[in-house]
Amino acid sequence: MDDLTGKRIVVTAGGTREAIDPVRYISNRSSGKMGYALAEAARDRGAKVILVTAPTALPDPSGIEVVHIVSAVQMKEAVIKATAQADALIMAAAVADYQPKSAVKEKIKRQTAGAELILELVRTPDILAEVKGNFIRVGFAAESEHLLENARDKLKRKNLDLIIANDITAPDSGFDVDTNKVTLIDRDGKLEDLPLMSKREVADKILDRMVGMIGKR
Ligand code: PMT
Fold first, then answer.
1. Residue nearest to atom 21 of ligand 1 (CA)
2. Catalytic residue check, 28
3. Which residue among 104, 153, 173, 178 sits deepest, i.e. has the most Cβ atoms within 10 Å of its Cβ?
4. How far apart are CA 49 and CA 24, in angstroms?
5. Which residues of the chain have pLDDT under 70?
6. Contact 171/135 with Cβ under 8 angstroms?
7. What φ, ψ does residue 46 adopt, rounded to 5°?
């Protein structure tokens, strides 16, 4: 299939890491598998793909420009640069919502920290909501409750064309597994509930919906 030939697609993947000190960080269980599957599927359909990825255990896919970042702030900068001429942005990354207020330069010592250590956190930038440009915006909503309600809210709040409601409570779905169970919701409220399938199959279903959207831009 070559229905994305000539299109430029930016995909994000993995869980950002927010430094506490030089050896410790806050992160999440994202393996990058969903984002990498999307990047590879878009490449195989002819798109020029830029993959902005937080650290993962996955090898760089061939035929894709891979930009390695660590934190949410770095991901935002890389996404702004990558989307300068993009037709679409797909944010499959699990971006940390909070980062330590100030990352300490030296390793925090158990003896000096004492019995309790209070970490002050501040909000990270909301990349999807803040990145500007005339491209199709696709977000994920990883939810453990009120799946569709929360996904619809994110679709509106982040001004998205399509949101992938990701049920992370279902077995074999969500973080760090090879399969996923998602529901696609577009701007007009059209809903497509998909059965459990491989992340690669989910990626192709998402791209199927995006082809028409990119064509209408
Ligand atoms: O990597 P895997 O192990 O394969 O797992 C896949 C996945 C579960 C991580 C993926 O399918 C998924 O659901 N990704 C989104 C996870 C998430 O952070 O969702 P959220 O509901 O917190 O965020 C909503 C959307 O806003 C997401 O598209 C997210 O990338 C984006 N976001 C979030 C926070 C932030 N500061 N900036 C953002 O742009």
1. 141
2. yes
3. 173
4. 32
5. none
6. no
7. 100, -5
